[in-house]
Amino acid sequence: MSNALFEVTGLCKGFDAPAGRLEILKGLQFSLNEGEFLAVVGESGSGKSTMLQIIGTLERPDSGEIHLEGRSLIAMGEAAQAEVRNRKIGFVYQAHHLIPELTAVENVSLPLLVQGMTVADAEARAMQLLERLKLAGRAKHVPARLSGGEAQRVAVARALAARPRLILADEPTGNLDEHTAGEVFDLLQQLCREERAAVVMVTHSRALAKACDRMLMLHDGVLVPA
Ligand code: ADP
Ligand code: MG
Q1: What is the average per-residue pLDDT within 115-121?
Q2: What is its EC number (predicted)?
Q3: Protein residue closest via CA to atom 26 of ligand 1
Q4: ipTM computed for the complex
Q5: Which residue, 16, 20, 1, 17, is CA-closest to 62?
Q6: Ligand 1 pocket test: which of 11, 12, 15 has the largest number of ligand atoms within 8 Å of its C-beta?
Q7: CB-defined site of ligand 1, < 6 Å
Q8: What atom in ligand 1 is closest to the CA of residue 42?
Q9: pLDDT over 70 for what percent of the chain?
Q10: Minimal CA–CA distance to 166: which of 32, 21, 20?
């Protein structure tokens, strides 16, 4: 095994469909160094979301290995996986999935409170991130009072709150117009760089993918240079 931050080897996953078994992932292979930003592109239905669900330990592969900081996420039990998910991995989706009743700062603080941090410390960390994402003036707003781009930036802040080593982003700008998408992406990239978090970002935007450190395409079940 290499000393990469994150390494995926021989990852396979299929689903049983009415017409027979569909092999979606047929041996994914890649590794990421600390702070590296990888874009994954590929046609709809190629298995990009399935890949992120598996590497985030939300779904099990049929075979293959995943190592984060040298530890196998496959070999460990469910409780240990949940611990890794909460402390080491941050998720961003196409929809913000913020809690509608909570303000921006409360949404960002929540994962830290769950980990046992005091309210004062959690809110200090949340405010630091919101300021960095140009959202200081929106901290007390509930999601319904935020624009699409603002809500997505709050979701980015929440994903980074616990200082994860790895961010998994599934079309994080997919619901935004091109200009707003560019702004959200730039801030995501800057913040992950500062926090030294590695990123796997699935996107349909070639322009954004080109601005990442590396681009791979998921095609016919494997990752190929794009
Ligand atoms: P993408 O994100 O690249 O659009 P997905 O990972 O969502 O692709 O889906 C890849 C393929 O796997 C699709 O054909 C989808 O229908 C199928 N698939 C995904 N999840 C399941 C599931 N839980 N059960 C059966 N088929 C699934
Ligand atoms: Mg998808």
Answers
A1: 97
A2: 3.6.3.-
A3: 15
A4: 0.98
A5: 16
A6: 15
A7: 15, 24, 42, 44-50
A8: 3
A9: 99
A10: 32
